[in-house]
Amino acid sequence: MANHAEKARLEFAKIDKLIMFLKDVRGEVVKVTWPGREEVKSATLVVIIVCIFVAMVIWLIDSVIKLGVESIF
Description:
By secondary structure, the chain is mainly α.
């Protein structure tokens, strides 16, 4: 019987820890400074432009390597 009571106590301790964790998370989320619409739009635009630029650089390098390999073989 004591073993069953011990298991139940451990389960409640786990639940209490989870509840405390979730309360701490809520407290931290309240402190977050969320970006505004304009900031999100400008950051998204920067990410898209950088992705396109990196894709073009990779394409250029791939094309140069392809030309080199084709000239050898």
